[in-house]
Every structure is written in structure tokens, then in C-alpha cells.
Amino acid sequence: MSEIKRRVGVAALACAAILGAAGQVQAAQCGNTSAGFEAWKREFAEEARGRASAQSLAALMGTSYSTATISADRGQKSFRLSLDQFMAKRGANAIVSRGRSLKAQNAALFDSIEQRYGVPPGPLLAIWGMETGFGAVKGNVNTLSAVATLAYDCRRSAYFTDQLYAALQLVDRGILTANTRGAAHGEVGHTQFLPKNVLTYGTGGSLDNVGTALNSTANFLKGHGWRAGAGYQPGQPNFAAIQGWNSASVYQQAIAIIGRRIDGE
């Protein structure tokens, strides 16, 4: 090997090492306490340049570590209840009663949704009632802070990093703002959509609007394989779409049962 080639080779190796080290520095490091959150935001913002606008990154830099989000993420005990216990805790009978009333009051809306997406009123009303008590409790946690906290938290960092990028896009579209508030994991609107689902299945506008939220929820179910006219109880074709809504088995069963009761089956 000539001296020139040797020097070129050494230089290339050195350059690769520097670039590798730079890449390591640029990767935002997760953490399990609030201590590293501000540093993580700066690292993430540097990583995100080119993928997120200056406006959305400014909104990100205004977020704070959400202890309410971490507490909720670590304390989801209701999903470990039996089906009967879960139904009682969530007020299934009240959801059915209110759901039947809303179905009658909004017949034209639900007819148009079923014609477009093939989804009957029952499961939509079950989801609406289960998620927010038909809009009564949509949450009061800052949405960007919630999603940023979970993107920083080591438990599910990759999943919520995707959600954070989606949230930043929604800021640019005017659907979210730095002051938007919702549930503890960053869900928003009447049926509690995470940011990435708003991007993928949202039908336009704010999910604080009932019609938009219900159309978007039907679009979500259709996007997860819902077939018009098929059953949605466990073992039936459309139950898989309900499973796409929430990973907890007890929650899936509750939606199916409550929806069936609302639909009068």
C-alpha cells in the first residue's frame, strides 16, 4: 500500500468515527425522570430539523414534563378487572341508555355515517361513551406536553416519538396548538384520537366537533377492516376492527357488548 493510500484510508476511518460519534450525540436520549427532559427537547429539536417546522418546534420547546401523564401511564389498573367489573366501573348501563337517546336524536348523522363507512351507530356510541362520557370528560392535560413526555420516557419512546412527529404536523395544520388540552396520553376530541390517528383517519377539522369525531372514528374502523353488514361481536368479522381501537381485551369486549345493546340486538 502506498503512503498516499494509507493516509487516505486513515483519514476515511477518522471521518467515519467522527460522523458516528456525531450521530450518537444527535440521538435524543430517553429518560425515566424529569431531570433530562429539557436536554432531551433540545436534542430532539435538533434531530427534527427538516422534518418539523420552526413553528411546531417552538411549540415543542414550550412543553413541560407531565407528571400527570406518567402517573396515568403507570396506573392503568382497570384493564386488569374482569369484564363484569370493568363494565360496572365504566357505567355500561348508563352508556347504553344515553347512547340509545343520542342515536335517536342524531339519526340523520348516524345514517350518513353508516352509508359512507358501513359502521352502525352502536359501536360508535359505545366508543364515544366509553372514551369521554359523550364529550363530558375529554381531559385537561396539555397535549403536546403529554406526547413529548411519553416520547422522552424510555417505556415506549419509539411509539410516542412517531406520535410526537404527527402532533408537530398537526400544529402546522392548525388542528393542534401549544395550548390544546386532552387526555393524559395525548388523545384529543370526543373519541380520543392520538395524533397519528388524527393524521391518518381524521376527516378534517377538530375532533372536538361531534360530527367530525364520529366520522373519523368510523373511518378508523373501516381502515381496520370493517365490513358493512358483518357482525362485530367476538368471533365475528368486524371484531378485529374493534381490537384495533384498543389493545385491552376487556375494553374490546365491552365496546362490542355495549354497541350491541345500543343497536337493539
Question: Which helices and strands appear, and what pairs or packs with what?
Answer:
Blueprint: H1 3-26, H2 37-48, H3 54-61, H4 67-74, H5 83-89, H6 92-105, H7 107-117, H8 121-132, E1 141-142, H9 143-152, H10 157-173, E2 181-182, H11 195-201, H12 210-223, H13 239-245, H14 249-262
Helix pairs in contact: 3-10, 6-8, 6-14, 7-12, 8-14, 9-10, 10-11, 11-12, 12-13, 13-14
Task: Please describe what this structure looks like.
This is Membrane-bound lytic murein transglycosylase B. It is an enzyme of class 4 (lyase). Its EC number is 4.2.2.-. Residues 37-232 form the Transglycosylase SLT domain. Residues 1-27 form the signal peptide. This protein has 14 helices and two strands; from the N terminus they run ααααααααβααβαααα. The chain has 265 residues and is mainly α. Residues 1-25 have low confidence and may be disordered. It is 62% helix and 2% strand. The chain has a two-stranded antiparallel sheet. Helix 9 (143-152) packs antiparallel against helix 10, helix 10 packs across helix 11 (195-201) and helix 12 (210-223) packs across helix 13 (239-245). The protein is globular, with a radius of gyration of 23 Å. The protein has two domains: 3-72 and 142-173, no CATH class; 81-140 and 187-262, Orthogonal Bundle (Lysozyme), CATH 1.10.530.10.
